[in-house]
Backbone:
């Protein structure tokens, strides 16, 4: 058995000391409790019998303080992680807001450019329409003038024809009066008698 016990002791690894806690800024410092002094060693036999009869011993106070500092370290690490995550979330939201604002600015610039282009084209169209209306009015005026000239020319021709008709009627009346007076028959034959 003596050989087995040393093997057991060799197999059990010694607990590594906990890592140093990260530096804490503006945090409350909890003082570590000092462990109570160990009881005086009387007899090894008594100590062995006490160990066999007594329930398992509680971890010493030093372990509790180490455990408290480990828990404290865990809590501080968790707080630090949450702080870092909240900063990352805030940065992400800030970047998203910047991207949204940039996109909105570009979209509004595009809308204003579009409106400017539309207004320019509509102004050009209005100018063209006004020019066309002006040309249309000018052409309409020219056409009315031409119609007036044609009407005037037609009236002149009518007047000339009426004048010739009047002259021919007057000439026919004079000749018929002359033939009646002389009793002669006109030399020109009229129709087929």
Residues:
């Amino acid at each position: 058995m003596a050989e087995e016990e040393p093997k057991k002791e060799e197999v059990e690894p010694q607990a590594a000391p906990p890592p140093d806690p990260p530096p804490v800024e503006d945090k409350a410092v909890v003082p570590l409790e000092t462990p109570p002094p160990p009881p005086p060693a009387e007899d090894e036999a008594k100590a062995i019998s006490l160990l066999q009869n007594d329930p398992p011993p509680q971890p010493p106070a030093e372990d509790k303080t180490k455990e408290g500092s480990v828990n404290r370290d865990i809590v501080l690490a968790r707080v630090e992680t949450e702080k870092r995550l909240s900063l990352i979330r805030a940065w992400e939201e800030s970047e998203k807001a910047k991207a949204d604002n940039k996109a909105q600015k570009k979209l509004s610039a595009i809308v204003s450019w579009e409106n400017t282009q539309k207004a320019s084209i509509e102004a050009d169209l209005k100018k063209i329409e006004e020019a066309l209306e002006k040309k249309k009015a000018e052409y309409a005026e020219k056409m009315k003038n031409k119609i007036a000239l044609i009407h005037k020319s037609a009236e002149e021709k009518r007047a000339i024809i009426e004048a010739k008709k009047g002259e021919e009627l007057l000439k026919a009346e004079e000749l018929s009066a002359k033939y009646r007076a002389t009793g002669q028959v006109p030399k020109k034959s009229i129709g087929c008698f």
About this structure: The first helix runs from residue 4 to 11. The radius of gyration is 64 Å. Residues 1-13, 24-29 have pLDDT under 50 and may be disordered. Helices lie at 4-11, 44-53, 61-182.
